[in-house]
Amino acid sequence: MSDLELNLKNAQKEVDKTIKSLLPSGKGLEKKLFEAINYSILSSGKRIRPYLVIQSSKLFDVDQKNALRVASSIEMIHAYSLIHDDLPSMDNDFLRRGLPTTHRKYNEATAILAGDSLLTLSFEILSDNLTHNDSKIRCELIYELARAAGANGMVAGQMMDLEAENKKLSIGVITRIQRLKTGALIAFSCNAGAILGRAEKKYKFALQGYAHDIGLAYQIRDDLLDVTSTTKKLGKKVNKDKKIGKKNFVSILGKERAKKQLEILGNQAIEHLEVFDSRADMLREIARFIVERNK
């Protein structure tokens, strides 16, 4: 097992442990809601976004307990976004991580409420003194995550993505859609450590550049896997964009050009980390992982 694989596995365990400690529970009429929340967020996942929070926090000697709470918060936003993305009114998916999507496992109303619960719980966690003893830091985290997840970030990207079906779009428009839909949360994940650690602007700028490039790289790899992999291997439907007439990086650039662009973005991301020297080696490794991953 490589250092990266070991680090990812250990981080996943710590994040899942923290998430479990933060999730609500109950036995009354709302029991199904709590079951759906647990089902949605504790199913197997790579936990890339939490890992980015943890590694960026290490650059500034942030207490791991603080980093894990923020990492858990961003994973809750991510899980909520997947629940809602899979709904019949959006992507209408029946499979996620090899398991039935939340609305298929329970029902559509329960899935919506589970997503709503995770969204709001995320901000509850960030507002707590246990996340950071400085209220200004907590407010900055809340503000930046709200912008990344809301109508100026991920939600805008989701809306644009829905509107993009059966339309002829330029590579610039596709890039903007994915920078918002996928890249905004990844950017927050990288910046969270800098916020927690009260980092200087030059370090924040370096992480922003890194996040921008790995965010686009992540989506290009997703688009490539959608046309080269299988449902069994990915744990979700493949060839989705083609079936609904939606343009993506591969359909516009072609597979070979998309692969070249992927390599360029990976190398650029690593270059942004020069200011951190060897302290950012694990961030360099995750950039390579994003470029090379097969699921």
Task: Give structural notes.
The chain has 16 helices and two strands. It is mainly alpha-helical and 295 residues long. It has one domain (3-292): Farnesyl Diphosphate Synthase (Orthogonal Bundle). Strands 1-2 form a two-stranded antiparallel ribbon.
Provide a compact summary of the structure.
The chain has 295 residues and is mainly alpha-helical.
Per-chain topology:
Layout: H1 3-22, H2 31-41, H3 48-58, H4 64-85, E1 95-96, E2 99-100, H5 102-105, H6 108-127, H7 135-149, H8 154-163, H9 171-181, H10 183-196, H11 201-228, H12 231-234, H13 240-243, H14 249-253, H15 255-271, H16 281-292
Antiparallel strand pairs: 1-2
CATH architectural name: Orthogonal Bundle
Q: What is the H/E string? A: HHHHEEHHHHHHHHHHHH
pLDDT averaged residue by residue: 92
Fourth CATH level, the homologous superfamily: Farnesyl Diphosphate Synthase
- How many helices? The count is 16
Secondary-structure content class: mainly alpha
Number of domains: 1
Number of strands: 2
Largest sheet: 2 strands, antiparallel
Characterize the overall form: globular
Give a quick set of tags describing it.
mainly alpha; 2 strands; 16 helices; two-stranded antiparallel sheet
